[in-house]
Amino acid sequence: MLRAINNKLIRKNLTHNFRMIYFSRITLNSATQLLGLFLPIFLYQFLDFSLFWVIVYYLISDLLYASLVAVGCRQIMNRFGIKRSLQLSVFFGAAFYAVFFLINHYIAPHNQLVEGYQLWWLAPTIFFSLFFRLTHWIPFHTNVAKLTERHIRASQLSFMEATMMALGAVMPIVGGLALEYLGYSTLFFLAVSIYLISLIPFSQLPQVKEKFSWTYRETWRHFLSKKMRGSVLAYAGDGAENVVGSIIWPIFIWQLLSGNYLQVGAISSVIILATIVLQIMVGNLIDNLPSRRWLRYGTVLYSFGWVLKALINSAFQVFLFSTYHNLSRVFARTSFDALNYDIAADQGHYVDEYTVIREMAIVFGKALMCIFIILISPFLALRYLFLVAALASLLMSLLKPDQLVDN
Fold first, then answer.
1. Which residues of 16-28 are buried (b: 16+ CB within 10 A; e: fewer)?
2. Is 233 inside a domain boundary?
3. Domain presence at residue 404
């Protein structure tokens, strides 16, 4: 019975174009999952345990990307095309982790630098991160919107999300074991290798012919327009919440678990496994309500998960509350992503322009959250930032299906 359901799902969802999108996304996500928990911790240690400088690092990266994304589309994506831009992004992503490998191997062991000066050694990683994002995210999201079909898009994205969740159950403990016995250099080397492997599925993608047509001024006019305000706020909330989840949360649990990498990785893997089991048990529920309604309910449930995380004081509570939070994320994230790509696909030839607005809103949400953290972190414990993330995640429910750009 289960095999028949799986075969039906595969026949329905895994078209050739989606398979290439799927394998490229999963390959890159493997590297992200491997280092996702541990890269902010590495930065925290390298920058003399200064949360201020960690946030400054991410803030610089986000502000550069937000200010240059429209220019990047015109100068890179229009010139090289979507497929070649994605292939170029692989080398920038690999170079990003290669620089971290060199920093860990040659700089970190003999780090005698004045506090804050270490940021200069991280400048090349900001450069490669910027060019990875400029060459990757707009082409990737444009491909997803153009190469997936509306009537099966939600199930395709759900399948991709489930696979990334399964990777999330394996990669953190692999990363924790590698750090415990081999060190950061091994993780960075593995990330470089995984990125280069992703060239294979990227080379099999068809060429999607889209050109970014807006000028820099037009892009900002659309971004600031009243018509796009709901979408901008929704994506900004997504970006703001992501900062707390990807930077503050790993440092928080690392501190709570007394700096034990293996425990950090193991408990993260167990949380994902428990989430997968619960998702299977309640998975059919999401089919009984429209995605827009699930988005409203899911964001409320997901927001409450951040409130629970603010109460954590033990490893068991990390497991219990994070399992609930991840399960609620399944419903919120799948609905949000499906609606996002539906809206993007409805833009016609303006799909890449709409995607630029989306990226700008996400990154500005991240930047605003970084600035807020810098201002309040000297006065409040990290756990109180989870309450701010709870409020930010509620903004995701503002995304509406009729958000067409003013062509």
1. ebbebbbbbbbbb
2. yes
3. no
Its domain, for residue 42, covers: 16-398
CATH of the domain at 221: 1.20.1250.20
Q: At what angle do helices 315-345 and 229-243 cross, to 10 degrees?
A: 150
Alpha carbon distance 56, 51 (integer Å): 9
Q: Exposure of 324 by Cβ count < 10 A (0-12 exposed, 13-18 middle, 19+ buried)?
A: buried
Which residues, 6+ apart, have CB-to-CB distance to 310 below 8 Å? Answer: 383, 384, 386, 387, 390
**In whole angstroms, what is the distance from residue 299 CA to residue 393 CA?**
6
User: Residue 28 to residues 61, 173, 385: CA-CA distances in angstroms?
Assistant: 20, 18, 29
Question: Can you give the pLDDT of all 407 residues of the chain as single tens digits?
Answer: 434 444 544 455 566 777 888 888 888 888 888 888 899 999 999 888 889 999 999 999 999 998 888 877 777 777 888 888 889 999 999 999 999 999 998 876 666 554 556 778 899 999 999 999 999 888 888 877 777 776 676 677 777 877 887 887 888 888 888 888 888 999 999 999 999 998 888 888 777 776 777 777 888 888 888 888 888 999 999 999 999 999 999 999 999 988 888 888 888 888 887 777 766 555 455 545 555 666 777 888 899 999 999 999 988 888 888 888 888 887 787 778 878 877 777 776 677 788 888 889 999 999 999 999 999 988 888 999 999 999 999 999 888 776 656 55
The structure tokens listed for 69 are 């994304």
Going by C-alpha positions, the residue among 282, 283, 256 that lies closest to residue 268 is 256
Domain count, the chain: 1
Does residue 122 sit within a domain? yes
Residue 213 domain flag: yes
